[in-house]
What does this fold into?
Amino acid sequence: MKKKEIICGFSKLTREQKLDYISQYTEGPSAFAGELSSYRHSDPAVQKLFDEFSENTLTNYFIPYGVAPNFLIDGKVYHVPMVIEESSVVAAAAKSAKFWSDKGGFTTRVKSVIKTGQVHFFWNGDAEKLFDQMPLLRERLLARTAQITANMRQRGGGIRSIDLVDKTHEIPDYYQIHATFDTVDSMGANFINSCLEEFAEELRQFFRENPYFTRAERKVEVVMSILSNYTPDCLVEASIECDIDRLNDLDEGLTGKEFAGRFQKAVQIAQVDTFRAATHNKGIFNGIDALALATGNDFRALEANGHVYAARSGKYRSLTDISISGGKFRYSLTIPMAMGTVGGLTALHPLAKRSLELLGNPDARQLMRIAASVGLANNFAALKSLVTKGIQRGHMKMHLLNILNNFGATEDEKVKAKEYFAIEKVTFRAVELFLEGLREQVLSAAPKVIFNK
Ligand code: MEV
It folds into this structure.
Protein backbone atom coordinates (compact mmCIF):
# COMPACT_ATOMS: atom_id res chain seq x y z
CA MET A 1 0.00 0.00 0.00
CA LYS A 2 1.31 3.45 -0.88
CA LYS A 3 2.47 5.74 1.93
CA LYS A 4 0.05 8.66 2.41
CA GLU A 5 1.29 12.14 1.54
CA ILE A 6 -0.23 15.62 1.49
CA ILE A 7 -1.98 16.35 -1.79
CA CYS A 8 -2.67 19.85 -3.13
CA GLY A 9 -5.57 20.60 -5.43
CA PHE A 10 -7.54 17.45 -4.58
CA SER A 11 -10.84 19.31 -5.00
CA LYS A 12 -9.89 20.21 -8.59
CA LEU A 13 -9.67 16.55 -9.64
CA THR A 14 -12.62 14.85 -11.32
CA ARG A 15 -14.58 12.36 -9.25
CA GLU A 16 -12.88 9.46 -11.05
CA GLN A 17 -9.44 10.94 -10.42
CA LYS A 18 -10.26 11.46 -6.74
CA LEU A 19 -11.43 7.88 -6.41
CA ASP A 20 -8.34 6.54 -8.18
CA TYR A 21 -6.15 8.70 -5.99
CA ILE A 22 -7.56 7.58 -2.65
CA SER A 23 -7.91 3.97 -3.80
CA GLN A 24 -4.11 3.72 -4.05
CA TYR A 25 -4.02 3.96 -0.26
CA THR A 26 -6.15 0.86 0.26
CA GLU A 27 -5.23 -2.80 0.23
CA GLY A 28 -7.15 -3.54 -2.96
CA PRO A 29 -7.48 -0.35 -5.03
CA SER A 30 -9.71 -1.73 -7.74
CA ALA A 31 -12.01 -3.58 -5.31
CA PHE A 32 -12.20 -0.44 -3.19
CA ALA A 33 -13.04 1.82 -6.14
CA GLY A 34 -15.46 -0.75 -7.54
CA GLU A 35 -17.37 -1.14 -4.30
CA LEU A 36 -17.64 2.59 -3.71
CA SER A 37 -18.83 3.14 -7.28
CA SER A 38 -21.43 0.40 -6.96
CA TYR A 39 -23.36 2.58 -4.50
CA ARG A 40 -23.84 5.38 -7.02
CA HIS A 41 -27.35 5.97 -8.32
CA SER A 42 -28.22 4.53 -11.72
CA ASP A 43 -29.87 7.78 -12.84
CA PRO A 44 -27.07 10.29 -13.60
CA ALA A 45 -29.36 13.26 -12.89
CA VAL A 46 -30.16 11.99 -9.39
CA GLN A 47 -26.52 11.16 -8.76
CA LYS A 48 -25.48 14.65 -9.85
CA LEU A 49 -27.91 16.13 -7.34
CA PHE A 50 -26.38 14.05 -4.55
CA ASP A 51 -22.83 14.81 -5.69
CA GLU A 52 -23.60 18.50 -5.45
CA PHE A 53 -24.94 18.45 -1.88
CA SER A 54 -21.44 18.25 -0.54
CA GLU A 55 -17.81 18.34 -1.68
CA ASN A 56 -15.28 15.78 -2.90
CA THR A 57 -18.19 13.38 -3.30
CA LEU A 58 -17.23 9.85 -4.36
CA THR A 59 -20.38 7.86 -3.76
CA ASN A 60 -23.45 7.58 -1.54
CA TYR A 61 -23.56 6.09 1.94
CA PHE A 62 -26.72 4.08 2.51
CA ILE A 63 -28.64 4.26 5.77
CA PRO A 64 -31.98 2.48 6.16
CA TYR A 65 -35.14 4.53 5.65
CA GLY A 66 -37.92 3.08 7.80
CA VAL A 67 -41.27 4.13 9.14
CA ALA A 68 -42.82 4.12 12.61
CA PRO A 69 -46.56 3.99 12.04
CA ASN A 70 -49.49 4.91 14.29
CA PHE A 71 -48.33 8.11 15.94
CA LEU A 72 -51.45 9.83 17.24
CA ILE A 73 -50.38 13.43 17.75
CA ASP A 74 -52.90 16.07 18.78
CA GLY A 75 -55.69 13.89 17.43
CA LYS A 76 -54.09 13.24 14.05
CA VAL A 77 -52.41 10.02 12.91
CA TYR A 78 -48.91 10.16 11.42
CA HIS A 79 -46.75 7.43 9.95
CA VAL A 80 -43.32 8.80 10.74
CA PRO A 81 -40.34 8.28 8.41
CA MET A 82 -37.08 7.55 10.21
CA VAL A 83 -33.58 7.30 8.78
CA ILE A 84 -31.28 5.51 11.19
CA GLU A 85 -28.71 2.73 11.19
CA GLU A 86 -29.22 1.60 14.80
CA SER A 87 -31.34 -1.50 15.18
CA SER A 88 -34.39 -1.35 17.45
CA VAL A 89 -34.91 2.45 17.32
CA VAL A 90 -37.70 2.32 14.73
CA ALA A 91 -39.27 -0.70 16.41
CA ALA A 92 -39.16 1.09 19.78
CA ALA A 93 -40.79 4.22 18.34
CA ALA A 94 -43.46 2.14 16.63
CA LYS A 95 -44.18 0.17 19.80
CA SER A 96 -44.56 3.32 21.90
CA ALA A 97 -46.70 4.98 19.25
CA LYS A 98 -49.06 2.00 19.18
CA PHE A 99 -49.17 1.75 22.97
CA TRP A 100 -50.14 5.41 23.38
CA SER A 101 -52.53 5.48 20.42
CA ASP A 102 -55.43 4.16 22.51
CA LYS A 103 -54.55 6.38 25.47
CA GLY A 104 -55.03 9.76 23.83
CA GLY A 105 -51.71 9.71 21.98
CA PHE A 106 -49.23 12.58 22.19
CA THR A 107 -50.29 16.09 23.10
CA THR A 108 -47.98 18.86 21.99
CA ARG A 109 -47.56 22.57 22.39
CA VAL A 110 -45.19 24.87 20.53
CA LYS A 111 -44.26 27.44 23.12
CA SER A 112 -42.41 29.86 20.81
CA VAL A 113 -40.43 29.87 17.56
CA ILE A 114 -37.86 32.61 17.93
CA LYS A 115 -34.26 32.08 16.80
CA THR A 116 -31.14 34.00 17.67
CA GLY A 117 -28.05 35.38 15.98
CA GLN A 118 -25.15 37.49 17.15
CA VAL A 119 -22.53 39.89 15.88
CA HIS A 120 -19.55 39.63 18.21
CA PHE A 121 -17.43 42.77 18.25
CA PHE A 122 -14.69 44.50 20.19
CA TRP A 123 -14.86 48.21 20.84
CA ASN A 124 -12.97 50.45 23.22
CA GLY A 125 -15.07 53.40 24.26
CA ASP A 126 -17.72 54.87 26.48
CA ALA A 127 -20.40 52.15 26.85
CA GLU A 128 -23.06 54.66 27.87
CA LYS A 129 -22.59 56.55 24.62
CA LEU A 130 -22.96 53.32 22.70
CA PHE A 131 -26.23 52.43 24.44
CA ASP A 132 -27.46 56.00 23.73
CA GLN A 133 -26.86 55.40 20.06
CA MET A 134 -28.62 52.04 20.02
CA PRO A 135 -32.06 53.27 18.78
CA LEU A 136 -30.36 54.89 15.80
CA LEU A 137 -28.16 51.86 15.16
CA ARG A 138 -31.19 49.54 15.38
CA GLU A 139 -32.97 51.60 12.71
CA ARG A 140 -29.93 51.49 10.47
CA LEU A 141 -29.55 47.73 10.87
CA LEU A 142 -33.20 47.21 9.98
CA ALA A 143 -32.93 49.51 6.96
CA ARG A 144 -29.74 47.81 5.82
CA THR A 145 -31.43 44.38 5.81
CA ALA A 146 -34.82 45.54 4.50
CA GLN A 147 -34.23 43.93 1.12
CA ILE A 148 -33.05 40.60 2.51
CA THR A 149 -35.96 40.40 4.92
CA ALA A 150 -38.69 41.47 2.47
CA ASN A 151 -39.83 37.95 1.52
CA MET A 152 -39.62 36.66 5.06
CA ARG A 153 -41.67 39.62 6.30
CA GLN A 154 -44.28 38.86 3.67
CA ARG A 155 -44.50 35.30 5.04
CA GLY A 156 -45.06 36.68 8.54
CA GLY A 157 -41.49 36.42 9.80
CA GLY A 158 -38.40 38.60 9.89
CA ILE A 159 -36.25 40.30 12.50
CA ARG A 160 -37.99 40.43 15.88
CA SER A 161 -35.50 42.31 18.03
CA ILE A 162 -32.02 43.82 17.96
CA ASP A 163 -30.21 44.48 21.22
CA LEU A 164 -26.80 45.56 22.36
CA VAL A 165 -25.18 43.38 25.01
CA ASP A 166 -22.25 44.57 27.09
CA LYS A 167 -19.94 41.61 27.76
CA THR A 168 -16.96 43.69 28.90
CA HIS A 169 -17.15 42.16 32.39
CA GLU A 170 -16.26 38.82 30.76
CA ILE A 171 -13.74 39.91 28.12
CA PRO A 172 -12.43 43.51 27.92
CA ASP A 173 -14.07 45.54 25.11
CA TYR A 174 -16.38 42.67 24.09
CA TYR A 175 -19.93 43.55 22.96
CA GLN A 176 -22.63 41.78 21.00
CA ILE A 177 -25.46 42.69 18.73
CA HIS A 178 -27.97 40.07 19.84
CA ALA A 179 -30.82 39.72 17.38
CA THR A 180 -33.86 37.47 17.30
CA PHE A 181 -35.64 36.20 14.20
CA ASP A 182 -38.80 34.45 13.14
CA THR A 183 -38.01 32.34 10.09
CA VAL A 184 -41.56 30.91 9.72
CA ASP A 185 -41.29 27.47 8.03
CA SER A 186 -37.63 27.55 7.09
CA MET A 187 -34.74 26.55 9.33
CA GLY A 188 -33.54 29.98 8.35
CA ALA A 189 -29.80 29.51 8.85
CA ASN A 190 -28.85 31.27 5.61
CA PHE A 191 -31.39 34.01 6.18
CA ILE A 192 -30.13 34.74 9.69
CA ASN A 193 -26.45 34.60 8.72
CA SER A 194 -27.01 36.92 5.76
CA CYS A 195 -28.78 39.45 7.99
CA LEU A 196 -25.98 39.24 10.56
CA GLU A 197 -23.24 39.82 7.98
CA GLU A 198 -25.12 42.89 6.78
CA PHE A 199 -25.40 44.04 10.40
CA ALA A 200 -21.64 43.72 10.73
CA GLU A 201 -21.02 45.87 7.65
CA GLU A 202 -23.45 48.50 8.87
CA LEU A 203 -21.90 48.42 12.32
CA ARG A 204 -18.45 49.21 10.88
CA GLN A 205 -19.90 52.04 8.84
CA PHE A 206 -21.90 53.33 11.79
CA PHE A 207 -18.82 53.72 13.96
CA ARG A 208 -16.71 55.10 11.12
CA GLU A 209 -19.17 57.84 10.20
CA ASN A 210 -20.68 58.77 13.54
CA PRO A 211 -19.53 62.22 14.80
CA TYR A 212 -20.93 61.37 18.22
CA PHE A 213 -17.91 59.15 18.82
CA THR A 214 -14.36 60.37 19.36
CA ARG A 215 -11.77 59.53 16.70
CA ALA A 216 -10.50 56.61 18.82
CA GLU A 217 -14.04 55.33 19.30
CA ARG A 218 -14.68 55.12 15.58
CA LYS A 219 -12.69 51.92 15.37
CA VAL A 220 -14.50 48.64 15.82
CA GLU A 221 -13.32 45.08 15.37
CA VAL A 222 -16.06 42.71 14.28
CA VAL A 223 -14.83 39.22 15.12
CA MET A 224 -17.71 37.18 13.73
CA SER A 225 -21.36 37.17 12.81
CA ILE A 226 -23.25 33.92 13.16
CA LEU A 227 -26.56 32.45 14.25
CA SER A 228 -26.76 30.59 17.53
CA ASN A 229 -27.81 26.97 17.45
CA TYR A 230 -29.18 27.46 20.92
CA THR A 231 -32.81 28.49 20.56
CA PRO A 232 -34.39 28.44 24.04
CA ASP A 233 -37.21 30.56 22.59
CA CYS A 234 -37.99 28.03 19.89
CA LEU A 235 -39.47 25.49 22.21
CA VAL A 236 -41.86 22.55 21.94
CA GLU A 237 -43.42 20.28 24.52
CA ALA A 238 -44.81 16.79 23.92
CA SER A 239 -46.59 14.81 26.60
CA ILE A 240 -48.34 11.52 27.21
CA GLU A 241 -50.82 10.87 29.97
CA CYS A 242 -53.01 8.03 31.21
CA ASP A 243 -54.59 6.50 34.29
CA ILE A 244 -51.96 4.49 36.12
CA ASP A 245 -53.97 1.28 35.88
CA ARG A 246 -53.71 1.48 32.08
CA LEU A 247 -50.03 0.67 32.61
CA ASN A 248 -50.96 -2.66 34.21
CA ASP A 249 -50.29 -4.73 31.09
CA LEU A 250 -46.91 -3.19 30.29
CA ASP A 251 -44.92 -5.82 32.14
CA GLU A 252 -46.02 -9.22 33.34
CA GLY A 253 -44.39 -8.94 36.75
CA LEU A 254 -45.47 -5.39 37.65
CA THR A 255 -48.73 -3.59 38.38
CA GLY A 256 -49.26 -0.22 36.70
CA LYS A 257 -48.50 1.49 39.99
CA GLU A 258 -45.25 -0.42 40.45
CA PHE A 259 -44.25 0.23 36.87
CA ALA A 260 -44.97 3.97 37.21
CA GLY A 261 -42.94 4.08 40.40
CA ARG A 262 -39.92 2.42 38.81
CA PHE A 263 -40.26 4.61 35.73
CA GLN A 264 -40.40 7.74 37.89
CA LYS A 265 -37.23 6.72 39.71
CA ALA A 266 -35.46 6.24 36.37
CA VAL A 267 -36.47 9.78 35.33
CA GLN A 268 -35.40 11.23 38.68
CA ILE A 269 -32.01 9.57 38.28
CA ALA A 270 -31.59 11.22 34.86
CA GLN A 271 -32.54 14.53 36.45
CA VAL A 272 -29.77 14.39 39.01
CA ASP A 273 -27.03 12.25 37.48
CA THR A 274 -25.17 13.64 34.48
CA PHE A 275 -23.81 10.28 33.34
CA ARG A 276 -27.30 8.83 33.17
CA ALA A 277 -28.76 12.08 31.74
CA ALA A 278 -26.45 11.88 28.71
CA THR A 279 -27.73 8.40 27.81
CA HIS A 280 -31.32 9.26 28.66
CA ASN A 281 -31.20 12.26 26.32
CA LYS A 282 -29.33 10.29 23.66
CA GLY A 283 -32.32 7.96 23.54
CA ILE A 284 -34.57 10.98 22.88
CA PHE A 285 -32.33 12.04 19.99
CA ASN A 286 -32.47 8.54 18.51
CA GLY A 287 -35.99 9.44 17.41
CA ILE A 288 -35.49 13.14 16.72
CA ASP A 289 -32.34 12.67 14.64
CA ALA A 290 -33.91 9.88 12.61
CA LEU A 291 -36.83 12.11 11.70
CA ALA A 292 -34.48 15.04 11.08
CA LEU A 293 -32.45 12.97 8.63
CA ALA A 294 -35.58 11.70 6.89
CA THR A 295 -36.84 15.26 6.41
CA GLY A 296 -33.55 16.90 5.44
CA ASN A 297 -33.12 18.77 8.73
CA ASP A 298 -29.81 19.48 10.43
CA PHE A 299 -29.53 16.90 13.23
CA ARG A 300 -26.23 18.33 14.53
CA ALA A 301 -27.96 21.65 15.18
CA LEU A 302 -30.83 19.87 16.92
CA GLU A 303 -28.44 17.93 19.13
CA ALA A 304 -26.38 20.99 20.09
CA ASN A 305 -29.55 22.88 20.92
CA GLY A 306 -31.06 20.16 23.06
CA HIS A 307 -27.90 19.41 24.99
CA VAL A 308 -27.29 23.07 25.87
CA TYR A 309 -30.90 23.35 27.02
CA ALA A 310 -30.41 20.24 29.14
CA ALA A 311 -27.60 22.09 30.91
CA ARG A 312 -29.42 25.42 31.31
CA SER A 313 -29.54 25.12 35.12
CA GLY A 314 -25.74 24.86 35.23
CA LYS A 315 -25.92 21.07 35.44
CA TYR A 316 -26.66 18.69 32.58
CA ARG A 317 -30.01 16.97 33.22
CA SER A 318 -32.78 14.96 31.64
CA LEU A 319 -34.93 16.74 29.06
CA THR A 320 -38.04 14.94 30.29
CA ASP A 321 -40.25 15.43 33.28
CA ILE A 322 -42.68 13.17 35.08
CA SER A 323 -45.61 13.60 37.39
CA ILE A 324 -47.65 10.92 39.07
CA SER A 325 -50.63 12.22 41.00
CA GLY A 326 -54.34 11.62 41.38
CA GLY A 327 -53.95 8.17 39.81
CA LYS A 328 -52.53 9.70 36.64
CA PHE A 329 -49.19 9.15 34.95
CA ARG A 330 -47.97 12.15 32.94
CA TYR A 331 -44.65 12.19 31.09
CA SER A 332 -43.37 15.09 29.03
CA LEU A 333 -40.44 16.29 26.96
CA THR A 334 -39.65 19.97 26.58
CA ILE A 335 -36.99 20.72 24.02
CA PRO A 336 -35.83 23.61 21.86
CA MET A 337 -35.60 22.81 18.18
CA ALA A 338 -35.11 24.77 15.00
CA MET A 339 -36.66 22.72 12.23
CA GLY A 340 -37.63 23.65 8.71
CA THR A 341 -40.04 22.34 6.11
CA VAL A 342 -39.10 24.69 3.30
CA GLY A 343 -35.75 25.55 1.78
CA GLY A 344 -32.40 23.86 2.25
CA LEU A 345 -32.21 20.11 1.78
CA THR A 346 -35.96 19.74 2.49
CA ALA A 347 -36.62 20.95 -1.04
CA LEU A 348 -33.65 19.28 -2.73
CA HIS A 349 -33.34 15.77 -1.36
CA PRO A 350 -35.96 13.68 -3.18
CA LEU A 351 -36.55 11.49 -0.11
CA ALA A 352 -36.78 14.46 2.25
CA LYS A 353 -39.57 15.76 0.04
CA ARG A 354 -41.25 12.34 0.14
CA SER A 355 -40.95 12.22 3.93
CA LEU A 356 -42.68 15.56 4.24
CA GLU A 357 -45.33 14.35 1.83
CA LEU A 358 -45.88 11.26 3.99
CA LEU A 359 -46.34 13.55 7.00
CA GLY A 360 -48.92 15.61 5.10
CA ASN A 361 -46.54 18.47 4.26
CA PRO A 362 -46.40 19.90 7.78
CA ASP A 363 -45.30 23.44 8.56
CA ALA A 364 -42.25 23.93 10.80
CA ARG A 365 -44.33 24.04 13.98
CA GLN A 366 -46.07 20.79 13.12
CA LEU A 367 -42.76 19.13 12.36
CA MET A 368 -41.46 20.27 15.76
CA ARG A 369 -44.52 18.66 17.37
CA ILE A 370 -43.93 15.40 15.51
CA ALA A 371 -40.21 15.38 16.31
CA ALA A 372 -40.81 15.97 20.02
CA SER A 373 -43.38 13.17 20.05
CA VAL A 374 -41.00 10.73 18.38
CA GLY A 375 -38.22 11.70 20.81
CA LEU A 376 -40.55 11.11 23.74
CA ALA A 377 -41.75 7.82 22.24
CA ASN A 378 -38.20 6.50 21.89
CA ASN A 379 -37.31 7.59 25.40
CA PHE A 380 -40.47 6.03 26.83
CA ALA A 381 -39.67 2.73 25.10
CA ALA A 382 -36.08 2.80 26.38
CA LEU A 383 -37.07 3.49 29.98
CA LYS A 384 -39.85 0.93 29.83
CA SER A 385 -37.33 -1.74 28.85
CA LEU A 386 -34.69 -0.53 31.27
CA VAL A 387 -36.95 -0.65 34.31
CA THR A 388 -38.43 -4.03 33.39
CA LYS A 389 -36.60 -6.66 31.32
CA GLY A 390 -33.50 -4.60 30.63
CA ILE A 391 -32.51 -3.21 27.27
CA GLN A 392 -30.35 -6.01 25.92
CA ARG A 393 -33.01 -8.65 25.45
CA GLY A 394 -35.09 -6.64 23.01
CA HIS A 395 -32.15 -4.84 21.49
CA MET A 396 -30.17 -8.00 20.76
CA LYS A 397 -33.24 -9.61 19.20
CA MET A 398 -33.41 -6.69 16.77
CA HIS A 399 -29.67 -6.87 16.33
CA LEU A 400 -29.77 -10.60 15.47
CA LEU A 401 -29.81 -10.02 11.73
CA ASN A 402 -26.74 -7.77 11.96
CA ILE A 403 -24.86 -10.47 13.88
CA LEU A 404 -25.93 -13.13 11.40
CA ASN A 405 -24.80 -10.94 8.51
CA ASN A 406 -21.51 -10.46 10.30
CA PHE A 407 -20.99 -14.23 10.18
CA GLY A 408 -22.08 -14.39 6.53
CA ALA A 409 -25.19 -16.46 7.39
CA THR A 410 -27.21 -17.84 4.49
CA GLU A 411 -30.97 -17.20 4.20
CA ASP A 412 -31.64 -20.73 5.42
CA GLU A 413 -29.37 -20.23 8.46
CA LYS A 414 -31.13 -16.94 9.21
CA VAL A 415 -34.54 -18.61 9.27
CA LYS A 416 -33.26 -21.31 11.64
CA ALA A 417 -31.51 -18.76 13.85
CA LYS A 418 -34.62 -16.60 14.13
CA GLU A 419 -36.62 -19.62 15.19
CA TYR A 420 -34.03 -20.69 17.72
CA PHE A 421 -33.42 -17.22 19.20
CA ALA A 422 -37.13 -16.45 19.53
CA ILE A 423 -36.78 -18.00 22.98
CA GLU A 424 -33.03 -18.06 23.55
CA LYS A 425 -30.93 -15.13 24.72
CA VAL A 426 -29.08 -13.44 21.84
CA THR A 427 -25.40 -12.71 22.32
CA PHE A 428 -22.64 -12.47 19.73
CA ARG A 429 -21.06 -15.67 21.05
CA ALA A 430 -24.38 -17.55 21.22
CA VAL A 431 -25.04 -16.76 17.56
CA GLU A 432 -21.51 -17.81 16.60
CA LEU A 433 -21.90 -21.15 18.43
CA PHE A 434 -25.34 -21.69 16.92
CA LEU A 435 -23.99 -21.18 13.40
CA GLU A 436 -20.97 -23.39 14.08
CA GLY A 437 -23.35 -26.12 15.24
CA LEU A 438 -25.56 -25.74 12.18
CA ARG A 439 -22.61 -25.81 9.82
CA GLU A 440 -21.12 -28.89 11.50
CA GLN A 441 -24.47 -30.67 11.16
CA VAL A 442 -24.56 -29.82 7.47
CA LEU A 443 -21.00 -31.06 6.97
CA SER A 444 -21.57 -34.36 8.77
CA ALA A 445 -24.79 -34.93 6.82
CA ALA A 446 -23.08 -34.27 3.48
CA PRO A 447 -22.49 -37.38 1.29
CA LYS A 448 -18.89 -38.68 1.64
CA VAL A 449 -16.68 -38.69 -1.42
CA ILE A 450 -15.41 -42.24 -2.07
CA PHE A 451 -12.07 -42.50 -3.81
CA ASN A 452 -11.65 -45.43 -6.14
CA LYS A 453 -8.22 -46.93 -5.90
C1 MEV B 1 -29.60 3.43 22.91
O1 MEV B 1 -29.39 3.94 21.62
C2 MEV B 1 -30.41 4.39 23.74
C3 MEV B 1 -30.63 4.00 25.17
O2 MEV B 1 -29.37 3.75 25.81
C4 MEV B 1 -31.33 5.13 25.84
C5 MEV B 1 -31.45 5.02 27.35
O3 MEV B 1 -30.64 4.36 27.98
O4 MEV B 1 -32.39 5.68 27.87
C6 MEV B 1 -31.40 2.72 25.29
